[in-house]
């Protein structure tokens, strides 16, 4: 396989191309890497390759003429290359892309610098634009080395043990399991006994489960593409039960009305049924209805009797499954005490509010919190939202839910609950249950 690297700092690659498996692969002729100085394709005596951008602004851009001459010269040589421009604006490079690119005969890696390259080159003479992550470097040389090494690992013979490539992190859509070597005990920390057992089947299962566990905790998005067996899914379901200790409270008091006064709101039948079904679908442990009013509590209790032990139970068993999660409490403190009794610790309070009261967690941060193994109580307000005395107790806030056009966010509590639970758990729920595309 041939790599052509186009850069203004060819010396950058001298050491990396001489060491390790990459250096050995070049010596053996498994790879060919040619580094080209972009300045060699300039025509003025100063070998100029950059200029100021039209429209003003900071920094410089690579001029189109030297880039065009360089790319045309490289394209004139067989085999026909696939031209990659490395920039922060590119598609995210990953393990799957590395494997795909390894099937090509020849790659040209164009290393950006300054403020990038003239758009006419990018739009008309580049086949693919890649980024190695959401950060900015001084130039594309580091990124070129990342792509070079990641792709080269898939070229037959470059890595001596092909099983090593197949077992790498991401190779099967999962992060890699932990590894241990001698001594068996170090500073009191022992190697897991299963690795010393000599039972290869047990060792393989242990490694697989640790990979699943690490991926679930750190990169659940990878489960979307992973090939999961029925045993894997069973393990993930059990892991979900242990690690996701999520509770939900629909608060009817204290909440506020349109004028901002503290009130107790009325219960609605739709909230009872729809949020219970939602909670059952997403693995919520208990759905608390916080309602202190005696007449409202009597209505809820009558409805629950009808569905759990009366005619409703015989008519719709699936609804029973959902409504079994409902627990009626007089106040938030009663719900907190109930969770503490079950979990052995007070839950973290995760509040929702249509207006930002303090810096919220991002959805990714909130999803990590829910998967962390700590009990979490998600607070949903009725009427015009949770009262200040409830919000002041929250450990964390979620971002308000906005649409794409403006800041209109007057959702029903049922709609908000659906969106919130899906954003918090979407990466794991479908993949654990098995209802995803293969």
Summarize the SSE layout with pairings.
Layout: E1 2-7, H1 20-27, E2 32-37, E3 50-51, E4 61-62, H2 64-75, E5 82-92, H3 95-101, E6 106-111, H4 119-125, E7 128-131, H5 141-152, H6 162-167, E8 185-186, E9 189-190, H7 200-218, H8 230-243, E10 245-251, E11 255-256, E12 262-263, H9 269-282, E13 287-290, H10 294-308, H11 311-315, H12 317-323, E14 326-329, H13 332-343, E15 348-351, H14 363-370, E16 375-381, H15 388-391, E17 396-397, H16 413-433
Parallel strand pairs: 1-2, 1-6, 5-6, 5-7, 10-13, 10-16, 13-14, 15-16, 15-17
Antiparallel strand pairs: 3-4, 8-9, 11-12
- Strands in their spatial order, largest beta sheet: 14-13-10-16-15-17
Strand content: 15-25%
Q: How is the biggest beta sheet arranged? A: 6 strands, parallel
- Domain count: 3
Q: Kindly, what is the distance between the CA atoms of the first and last residues, rounded to a whole number of angstroms?
A: 31 Å
């Amino acid at each position: 396989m041939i790599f052509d690297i186009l850069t203004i700092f060819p010396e950058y690659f001298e050491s990396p191309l001489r060491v390790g498996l990459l250096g050995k692969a070049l010596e053996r002729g498994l790879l060919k890497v040619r580094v080209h100085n972009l300045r060699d394709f300039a025509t003025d005596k100063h070998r100029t390759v950059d200029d100021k951008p039209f429209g003003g602004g900071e920094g410089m851009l690579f001029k189109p003429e030297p880039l065009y001459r360089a790319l045309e010269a490289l394209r004139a040589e067989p085999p026909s290359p696939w031209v990659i421009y490395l920039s922060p604006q590119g598609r995210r490079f990953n393990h799957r892309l590395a494997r795909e690119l390894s099937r090509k005969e020849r790659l040209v890696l164009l290393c950006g610098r300054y403020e990038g390259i003239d758009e006419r080159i990018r739009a008309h003479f580049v086949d693919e634009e890649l980024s190695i992550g959401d950060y900015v470097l001084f130039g594309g040389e580091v990124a070129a080395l990342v792509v070079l090494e990641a792709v080269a690992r898939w070229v037959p013979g470059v890595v001596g043990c092909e099983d090593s490539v197949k077992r790498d992190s991401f190779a099967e859509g999962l992060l890699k399991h932990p590894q241990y070597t001698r001594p068996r005990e170090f500073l009191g920390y022992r190697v897991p006994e299963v690795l010393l057992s000599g039972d290869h089947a047990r060792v393989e299962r242990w490694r697989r489960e640790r990979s699943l566990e690490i991926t679930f905790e750190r990169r659940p998005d990878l489960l979307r593409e992973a090939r999961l067996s029925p045993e894997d899914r069973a393990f993930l379901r059990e892991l979900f039960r242990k690690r996701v200790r999520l509770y939900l409270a629909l608060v009817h008091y204290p909440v506020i009305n349109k004028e901002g006064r503290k009130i107790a709101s009325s219960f609605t039948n739709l909230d009872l049924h729809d949020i219970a079904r939602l909670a059952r679908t997403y693995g919520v442990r208990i759905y608390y209805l916080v309602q202190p009013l005696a007449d409202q509590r009597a209505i809820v209790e009558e409805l629950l009797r009808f569905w759990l032990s009366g005619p409703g139970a015989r008519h719709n068993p699936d609804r029973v499954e959902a409504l079994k999660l409902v627990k009626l409490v007089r106040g938030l403190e009663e719900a907190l005490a109930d969770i503490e009794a079950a979990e052995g610790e007070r839950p973290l309070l995760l509040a929702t509010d249509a207006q930002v009261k303090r810096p919220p967690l991002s959805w990714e941060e909130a999803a990590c919190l829910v998967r962390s193994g700590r009990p979490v109580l998600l607070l949903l307000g009725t009427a015009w939202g949770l009262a200040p005395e409830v919000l002041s107790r929250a450990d964390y806030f979620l971002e308000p839910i906005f649409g794409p056009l403006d800041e209109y966010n007057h959702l029903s509590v049922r709609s908000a609950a659906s969106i919130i639970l899906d954003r918090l758990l979407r990466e794991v729920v479908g993949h654990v249950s098995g209802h995803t595309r293969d």
